[in-house]
Specification:
The protein is built from 7 helices and 5 strands; from the N terminus they run αβαβαααβββαα. The chain has a 5-stranded mixed sheet with strand order 2-1-3-4-5, sandwiched between helices.
């Protein structure tokens, strides 16, 4: 997977916004290794305040535990870069922001910080809508910026796929811009 150009990322985030609006869903993000890139791409779209409520960059374990309410025991058992923590981040930011949907990303962007068990480029992405949480593991092979971009793109695509299985409902999105 190669990094996207700005126009392709813009098109993808516009499609996500249209899908959220069509289904009357609101969105929040919880990010670690992407450092706010998912929220940035989403808010680059004019009018995104109709569906995007906010995001948390929980880079440290303290922020993950304190703000997103990821259990300290979970962090100790599985580590910050794990499917368990990605899922807890998605649930935590949905609860914190009172949104229907969430994208959460945790990983090792590089160039250092990797180990044999958790190499550079390892990323877990969780997407949530209502009671559903889907988590995927990726190992990206780019440099730091490319790994962050590829994780951003994958997170948006994962949520779009989840939303396709959900019927439209009366919109709450206008509340998000108040």
């Amino acid at each position: 997977m190669k990094p996207m150009n700005n126009a392709a990322m813009d098109t993808l985030s516009r499609k996500l916004g249209a899908s959220l609006l069509k289904r009357g869903r609101t969105l929040s993000t919880a990010e670690s290794c992407t450092g706010g890139m998912v929220a940035e791409v989403i808010t680059d779209v004019p009018g995104s305040s109709r569906y995007f409520v906010g995001g948390v960059v929980g880079y440290s374990n303290g922020a993950k535990a304190g703000v997103l309410r990821v259990g300290r025991g979970l962090l100790a058992r599985h580590g910050a870069v794990s499917k368990e923590v990605a899922g807890a981040m998605a649930k935590g930011v949905k609860r914190l922001m009172h949104t229907d949907c969430a994208i959460a990303v945790t990983g090792i962007a590089g160039p250092d910080g990797g180990t044999a068990r958790k190499p550079v480029g390892l990323v877990y992405i969780a997407v949530a809508d209502r009671g559903k949480v889907h988590i995927q593991k990726f190992i990206f092979k780019g440099d730091r910026h490319a790994n962050r971009e590829m994780a951003t793109r994958r997170g948006i695509r994962m949520l779009m796929a989840l939303l396709r299985s959900c019927p439209p409902r009366p919109s709450r999105c206008a509340e998000a811009s108040s």
